[in-house]
Amino acid sequence: MKRGKTFIVSGPSGVGKSTVLNALLERRSNVYFSVSATTRDPRPGEEDGVHYHFLDVDTFRSWIVNDEFLEYAEYVGNFYGTPKKYVDAAMNGGKDVILDIEVQGAIQVTSKRPDTVRIFIAPPSWAELERRLTERGTDSQEKIQKRLLRAKVEFQTAHTYDYFVINDTVENAVRELDAIMTAEHCKPRERMEIISGR
Ligand code: ADP
Ligand code: 5GP
After folding, report:
1. What global pTM score does this model have?
2. CATH code assigned to 6-196
3. Residue of minimum CA distance from atom 18 in ligand 1
4. pLDDT per 10-residue tile (average), the chain, 198 residues
5. Which strands make up the sheet holding 31-33, listed edge to edge?
């Protein structure tokens, strides 16, 4: 069976990654969305094992020691990491994998797996990003300011990504992500392997 591809989606907190990816998952089949582990507290409505694996710091450290992460990073005072085994199982089962991870994690994954496709999602403006973060109502003003500061630093790395999507409307962003994933499956090497295997 043909192995799936890995797609990294990075972008500022509050830009709409979860919103857009949830809509994308409804449109595209054969995709596994990687559930990360984190030491941050769950937001209202977030479920353990669905949105994140919520771990205490000691457990997170034991996962690091046991080499359970494909990558991990610190982000605004908490740890976040991608559990390796589910990603590998999905890819081996022929599914594409989407990782919603920040830029340090993206660098780690790409250095281990250079065939990973990296997509940066940006807001239409900084004012709109601040509005979305405030409107979401899940973070204190202090946390929002920290996330905005981090967003501006992350934005400086956006040119190193393979694709740049602006989330002006959810519909536009989903359409572009869907198109990118389809295009990545039209690369000659993958297509030619299919034919030569017949
Ligand atoms: P992220 O996962 O990037 O942190 P979320 O998906 O939680 O961001 O979205 C942050 C807020 O912005 C949410 O309240 C969401 O409903 C809203 N949002 C997402 N995409 C759009 C959009 N295209 N236009 C307006 N609001 C949006
Ligand atoms: P949030 O707290 O808003 O859910 O996520 C904060 C940031 O952590 C976002 O930029 C998100 O992409 C990133 N993130 C989520 N999971 C992971 C992960 O497993 N690894 C890394 N490196 N970043 C992650």
Report:
1. 0.95
2. 3.40.50.300
3. 16
4. 91 96 96 97 94 97 98 96 95 96 97 96 96 92 93 95 98 98 92 80
5. 31-33, 96-100, 6-10, 117-122, 163-166
